[in-house]
């Protein structure tokens, strides 16, 4: 296979890994989702929720999303404009993503929509591209971020309400 064909195949494989990540989330395919990641991944959602980036296992990240997103009525992540730079067994990607999260019984309204970009790092492991890091960059948000909170927690005040950090100001 020529070098140009190898590069093209690698780009398609990287894009496929990114697509599988969001597809598995929306399909609640948590076991398959864990297989998209390297053993440890760096996760950064500080632009949405504040806090700090952290290093977690693939199983832990799948469990977290299963608990948080699996309780929703539905989710849909639309991923476009996946751009990648590949060097050997490492890749860096950016993608535009809009997220639509719905919970029919959410206090304050059933829908939260947001958009922005994801920066993803990937590593080739055993011939497959796997996500080793992801960082969300919130650009906009509308609706009710409390769809991520359990209804009983919101009603009795016992649980954490979802607080959203705003996008960082531009230059």
Question: What can you tell me about this protein's structure?
Answer:
By secondary structure, the chain is α+β, with helices and mostly antiparallel strands. The protein is 31% helix and 41% strand. It is built from 5 helices and 6 strands. The protein has helices at residues 3-26, 30-36, 46-49, 58-69, 151-156, and strands at 37-44, 54-57, 74-87, 90-102, 111-125, 128-143. It has a 6-stranded mixed beta sheet. Strand 3 and strand 4 form a beta hairpin. Helix 2 (30-36) runs antiparallel to helix 4 (58-69). The chain is elongated and about 55 Å long. 22% of the residues are buried.
How would the blueprint of this fold be written?
Layout: H1 3-26, H2 30-36, E1 37-44, H3 46-49, E2 54-57, H4 58-69, E3 74-87, E4 90-102, E5 111-125, E6 128-143, H5 151-156
Parallel strand pairs: 1-6
Antiparallel strand pairs: 1-2, 3-4, 4-5, 5-6
Helix pairs in contact: 1-2, 2-4
H/E order of the elements? Answer: HHEHEHEEEEH
**Outline:** elongated
The secondary-structure class comes to alpha+beta
Portion in strands: 35-45%
Oligomer: single chain
Rg from C-alpha positions? 17 Å
| Percentage of residues in helical conformation | 25-40%
Give the uncertain stretches in residue-range form. Answer: 151-171
What is the count of β-strands?
6
Mean pLDDT: 88
Distance between the termini: 45 Å
Largest sheet: 6 strands, mixed
Strand order of the largest sheet: 2-1-6-5-4-3
**Annotation field: number of helices:** 5
Quick structural summary:
The protein is 31% helix and 41% strand. With 171 residues, the chain is an alpha+beta fold. Strands 2-1-6-5-4-3 form a six-stranded mixed sheet.
């Amino acid at each position: 296979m020529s070098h140009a064909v190898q590069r093209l195949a690698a780009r398609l494989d990287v894009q496929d890994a990114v697509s599988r990540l969001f597809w598995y989330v929306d399909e609640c395919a948590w076991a398959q989702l864990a297989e998209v990641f390297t053993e440890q991944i760096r996760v950064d959602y500080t632009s949405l929720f504040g806090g700090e980036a952290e290093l977690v296992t693939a199983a832990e990240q799948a469990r977290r999303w299963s608990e948080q997103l699996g309780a929703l009525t539905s989710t849909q992540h639309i991923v476009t404009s996946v751009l990648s730079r590949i060097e050997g067994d490492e890749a860096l990607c950016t993608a535009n993503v809009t997220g639509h999260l719905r919970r029919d019984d959410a206090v304050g309204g059933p829908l939260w929509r947001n958009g922005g970009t994801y920066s993803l790092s990937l590593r080739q492991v055993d011939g497959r591209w796997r996500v080793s890091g992801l960082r969300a960059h919130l650009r906009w948000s509308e609706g009710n971020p409390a769809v991520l909170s359990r209804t009983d927690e919101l009603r009795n005040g016992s649980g954490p309400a979802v607080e959203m950090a705003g996008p960082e100001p531009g230059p």
